[in-house]
Design goal:
Layout (H helix, E strand, L loop, with lengths): L6 E5 L5 E2 L15 E5 L11 H6 L24 H7 L8 E5 L6 H14 L4 E5 L4 H11 L6 E5 L3 H11 L3 E5 L16 H18 L2 E6 L12 H5 L2 E6 L6 E9 L7 E7 L2 E4 L3 H5 L10 E8 L2 E13 L7 E4 L3 H14 L7 E7 L11 H13 L7 E3 L2 E2 L5 E2 L4 H10 L4 E5 L13 E5 L2 H8 L3
Length: 460
Amino acid sequence: MAKSKNTIFFCQQCGYESSKWMGQCPGCKEWNTFVEEPAMPKTAAGQTGVSVLKSKSVPDPVTLSKVEMTRQQRFTTGIQELDRVLGGGIVPGSLVLVGGDPGIGKSTLLLQVCRNLASDQRKVLYISGEESLQQIKIRAQRIGEFEDKLKLLCETNLDIITAVLQKEQPETVIIDSIQTMYSEAVSSAPGSVSQVRQATNVFLQLAKRQNITIFLIGHVTKEGVVAGPRVLEHMVDTVLYFEGDRYAAYRILRSVKNRFGSTNEIGVFEMRQEGLVEVANPSEYMLNGKPEGASGSIVACSIEGTRPILLEIQALVCKTSFGLPRRTAAGADLNRVNLLMAVLEKRAGLPSSSCDAYINIAGGIRMNEPAIDLGIVLAIVSSYKEIPISEKTICFGEVGLSGEVRAVTMTKQRIQEAKKLGFEVCIIPKVSLTREVMTEGIRLIGVSNVREAISEILPR
């Protein structure tokens, strides 16, 4: 039978449309991303093109100098870590997408935001397409007491939701989740590419037209990205991702897109019985349980946005039992670890080609900043030579292919954070050892290459 022409193919990554299936998307060059969806009904020819312009006034463009600047008045969520990631608070009329693995705490966090906003006498509407009112009530009782300013609605029909928003006029709306919403104008099933794109477009228009802040909860795929077309992330103002193991106690909220603030900030939370609790000092939290007198362990300093975070880097190096050594890395880039081990063998004379190497950043956090290179190098050397590094020693610096230790940004902030947590010795790049970074109460050691850094941890 001939295939029906009432279907069209969409790219799940970028939203590219095609009349036939293709292996590679011409738009984003990704493979096997096309899915089949029913075609949207076309409008009548008399309602498009010039006829529309005749019935509407054409706006006049303005020059850049005549555009008036108005400062966006933010309001706080009552959660400092979330405000930090959002860039200082919630911008009225913004559309925020929150993604993360199932059970990681997306709905819990936004329900806590609803509680805080309702306590500030702001009208909040929580729309759920996955849970009943009784299920939301159970979670709310675990979090605490709620004000009557918070209203709940269990609905998935976009037409009904639009009518409710126009009637209630709330200041903040939570949509849980965007994949459950559907429009009767689109014939495909809820969660499909067409439905997700249509629902996001409707909420975008509502947010901008009525100046309503809308939070969208999005499911993620096995690759860790929000399910649906990639154009979904382009339409919203802010994209937040929850990271971390759902069975671990901590959660990390990271911004990957923010039109109203920086995308380098992170928020750290701890999951407890009463919900998500802010971690005011992530460095102290990550270093809890650090072993004393154990080889292959050292503390390094990384920067996330404007916040220095101290991490424990662990390494285990042992002779391999097979012809091909095994290398694994948890929390760090494996390719970067292989590169640093090659630098050690070539520039420092450390014969590691016949050794298995296991690198771990304690706490399960993932860091890719080059400033932790020196920590990985010293942890590997400490494990290989079975030499413990002092618990009061910290290091940071980027390592190049010639074995040189290069400078990193925000040196003074890193040193001050180390001093605040009681560290006494700090190994830093020699080029960063200037008068401006000198701090009383902590000894600074400048190194220019990995050989000098290794000699500082060896017993004298």
